Amino acid sequence: MSTSKNPIKHVQFSTNDYFQPPTNGGGSSAPLKPVSTQFRAELISSIDAVSKYLDIGTKVSGVDTCAAVVELENNATAKSHRPTALFNDKTCPFFGDQGYGKFLIQVNPERLEALRNEIKTAKTQIALKALSTIKGISQYTPKLDSIGTDLAPIVIRLFRYNDDKLNLFIDQKFEELLNNNNTLWAKHPSESVRLYKVSSYPHALLELLPHVSSVQSAIRSQSITVKPMADSTVKAEEADLSEPQDDANYPIIGVVDSGVSTTCPAIKSWVAGSKCYVPEPLRDFSHGTFVSGLISNSFHFNQDNRFPTCQSKVFSIEVLGKGIGDVFEIINAMHEVAQEQPHIKVWNLSLGSSSPVSLDEISTMALMLDEFQDKYDCLCIVAAGNYTESLRAWPPASLLNDGVSSPADSVRAITVGSLAHIDGHVLNEEPSPFSRKGPVSNYIQKPDLVHFGGNFLSVGGMPIPLGVNSVCPTGYKRNDIGTSFSTPVVATIAANIYQELGERATPNLVKALLIHNANMAHGHKIDKAHKPYFGWGLPQDINSILEVNDYEATLAFQGHAQKSFEVEKLPFPIPTCLRTEDGKVRAEFFITLVYQPHLDPNRAFEYCQFDVNVGFGEYKDGRFSSKVPRQNDAHQYESELVKNGDKWSPIKVYHKRFPQGTNIENWKLRVSVLDREGIEAQGVQIPFTILLTIRDIDKEKPVYNEMTQLMNAYNWEVSDLAIEQRLKV
């Protein structure tokens, strides 16, 4: 059949598509284990220990409030079992978590006494069930193990409670403590987390911090780096020039890096602007220039059809001096530039810390990056980080400490891993030996995508880099390896999608298009065990992302989900050409859901506050049955749903192939919402994007034309997704 290309169709939800389904009752009130007198006594003893810790903290900090940890039994972590009958505003309310099954409660002397009385006297069925869910109660211990003793600058994070007046008082008392100890400090303006950078302080402060009850954690300030670039990677040959076309309108990407050389002949015409935050003696343009060459000319420098032909200009945010940066100052610089350059919608961060993130919480820089993206309605593309402890084989021969590094655990960002572009230590298109893996806290998949970042070749036991090509500050050709260099390739695709979509573009839609394309072309074929390295796969060039073939149709839906309401499209048109003689539907379905849940930085593991799901199937016997499952299998228990079923993950991918056909007459697309226990969710709007592709298995039938005709017949409000034409370059 014809190989012509067709635009993705955008479908507008109507008010009739939103409805309020009947609500189901809660779970059983039966206790999960016996509540004995001895168990109550153990809990009371734990509360006494917390009370003693609070007394010490009050004397040191002047604040009579602190956090304690409630650990739940393994079978009690689901929302229906959460013991809010015991921990609430009358006693010690939940306000955050410390990892899976460990929840933070706000305590003060009065609240602890009320909780003690509840535990002693609880007799109702609901109260007994609440008690039965508890494994233990303990004091919170601040995370201070990474700050060292050399008095290097540190960033201290304070707890935030659901009480603005209390939070202000905590800040005032902590600032008094800092001033009384002769420190030099600055408060970060972040609204989601309270951070203080302490640049100068005596050793006595380190002795006090473990006893300051308002301190949640502290980290060394200078902890963000880029991979050093070796002089041996520079070739004695000038890079070929590829100048911007005068009549082309290129998107601009914010490059948060080591700066870009404005004298390099191959790159200077692609620099739209710059801002420097690095002292002159520390400036080194090597890394930032190489990254910018891949943003502007990845195909030109590599001459490989797997690299995109689309191009972007760069705005340099120079924050890394000699390859090292400060979390606090990097984020401050980004806010300043975003206010001055609001047109920048894609930001490239080919940087990160040197160690894996915790699986129990989102890193501090990732929290700040999520807040940044929400505030400026933009999208950050972040490197997964480089694993350097060993030369990893593929598949890995053992379990390695090669998890992604901060800020690659940013939930709002797209995190990019690396593939080998040629054979070497690993084979072509296998994960590069250095590329880090996911998941991150709450088992959210990272990296999201991969692109080409190089390989190694072992010669006489020595690893020789097989790098991708770009340019050095002097204008000579250079090749190097790292996730730093796969990241800008994805960034330039994302920026061009933004530009192509015009006013319709949102971070959700751009992410969904990239992931949907990568999964259809590459990701759905990957062994599930290897997903932590590949993510959803390798995205193609912009034409392949925004266009479809005659034998398939891709529909884009954008809407807002909310608690107690569902969204549906019923009936859903299925092209007649996909039905067999006996009426079955013989086709392949791909669905990508990307949504923007409310994020709670107080909750380390339960950071994402909503779980949105999409179903595509039929009503049968009064119940909806989805026929296109998630690519990651669903499981019965909460822990397995979270770990393997993408529950609470803001990106979900579904796929099903029906080679023998499936007997469904009337199809329905359905969106539903689940919220965390304790969140005030009524009326909260959750932006979501769904991309749904229907494909003929034999790649022959006129699916696109029939689908377009059916949507018109159903009076759907439909338009071409890309409403602005990009100049072909």
Automatic annotation (TrEMBL):
Belongs to the peptidase S8 family. GO terms for molecular function: serine-type endopeptidase activity. Keywords: Hydrolase, Protease, Serine protease. Residues 1-23 have a biased composition (Polar residues). This is Peptidase S8 and S53 subtilisin kexin sedolisin. It comes from the Bacteria. SUPFAM superfamilies: Subtilisin-like.
